[in-house]
Amino acid sequence: MKESKKKILDVIIIGMGFSGVCSAIKLLENKIDNFEIHEKSKGVGGTWNDNIYPGAACDVPSHLYCFSFEPNPNWSRRYAKQPEIKQYIEHCVEKYDIKKYANFSSKVISIQLIEKSSLWLIKFNNGNEVLTKHVIHAAGGIHKPNIPTFKNLSQYAGTVMHTAQWNNEVVIKDKRIAVIGSAASAIQVIPEIAKIAKKVNIFQRTPNYIIPRGDRAYTDKEIIRFKKFPWLLNLYRWFFYMRLELLTFPIIKKNSFIGNKAAKNIIKYMRSKINNRSLHKYFEPKYDLGCKRILLSDDLFNAINRENVEVIHSNIDHFNTNGLTTADGVNYDFDVVIMATGFDIRGHMYSISLTGKNDLTLKEAWSKSEEAYRGCCISDFPNFYMVTGPNTGAGTISLIHI
């Protein structure tokens, strides 16, 4: 097809999670409606559409985890769970009437600059092609599962699934479960499956700093007040923002008195919650507080104290037909293996073949270092914008707030 006959858009948005939805809303606010949104999944929500594992929830306060222009007085909990967050995104899509711009199950496979016309050629997995003046790459950092390579994993006869690829048809009740990983998704899924599984073995490589989340349901009276007094809702949002900003920076500052004191107090707290004293040494991080994300959980340690839960600290050596063998030679048999191994948070930036000026690819441009102006605009890739580019991750608050 000749270039002149291809459909030419003003903007293409890749992804329909928080970033993509917000981008679409802002385009419409600025009277730009010649755009399309392409989402690889079948529905809206991004990571909140994909991550449906038991216990999936946000670790940022609900009232901070929403758009400033679309506050939600109806949050049912201080920390919203996955279904409610997805419902909020769907509400925004409906209210601002952007679903008509969406193309689902539409995966972008390549983006190439046509220098002669200063247009971007977008190719999709279904064979379609579109030309656009601008590209907004709104695929988030937590959508590409990080699945480790284990020796002989293919020989394992049971079920293996990543938390981000959860299959509700897999039976967990009364089964022997292995959870590989002990960070953000693991501490959410473990308490839920421990209630129904016959046995849960947690394979932990690195301990984490874990503090109470302080989650609770909002009362009907509180929700009514939020609806009746928008200024109170806004004040409540700013309360969470200031608390996170003012408290987090001092404690993660390297070699600070407050940081060292906080680290000791967190370890003391974790010890107080673990009944098995022999496990205490395995829950003492050997790195400074803040080098990894501080985790929040109200129920992980209750799960660890259950008789059907065991924490294993020996490295995994290899898999076999019935389970796996650890480096110390112990065999463990399972029915289901759950990979709670997180995401390739840089992978989304390279998941699509991107070619800019002079046939320069993104991998070539970033071969020495990943750099983007304000984390968004990349040299030699004009009119291409990456919402969650290099160094955009917020270590203290919600990225949505930013």
> What is the 3D shape?
globular
The average pLDDT value, as a whole number, equals 94
- CATH superfamily descriptor of the largest domain: FAD/NAD(P)-binding domain
Q: What is the alpha-carbon Rg in Å?
A: 23 Å
CATH architecture of the largest domain: 3-Layer(bba) Sandwich
Structural class of the secondary elements?
Answer: alpha/beta
Q: Can you give the helix content as a percent range? A: 25-40%
Overall structural domain count: 2
Largest sheet: 8 strands, mixed
Which ranges are low-confidence, i.e. pLDDT below 50, for 5 or more consecutive residues? none
Which CATH first-tier class of the largest domain would you pick? Alpha Beta
Strand tally is: 18
Structure description:
This protein is of the alpha/beta class. It has two domains: 3-144 and 344-386, FAD/NAD(P)-binding domain (3-Layer(bba) Sandwich); 153-213 and 243-339, FAD/NAD(P)-binding domain, CATH 3.50.50.60. Helices cover 25% and strands 20% of the residues. It is built from ten helices and 18 strands. It has helices spanning 18-29, 47-50, 82-95, 186-194, 220-228, 230-252, 257-273, 300-304, 347-350, 362-365, and strands at 8-14, 35-39, 102-104, 108-114, 119-124, 129-137, 159-162, 176-180, 199-203, 210-211, 295-296, 309-312, 316-319, 323-326, 331-333, 336-339, 353-355, 384-386. The strands form four sheets. Strands 1, 2, 3, 4, 5, 6, 17 and 18 form an eight-stranded mixed beta sheet that branches. A five-stranded parallel beta sheet has the order 7-16-8-9-12, with helices on one face. The longest helix has 23 residues, at 230-252. It starts with 7 loop residues before the first strand and ends in a 16-residue tail after the last strand.
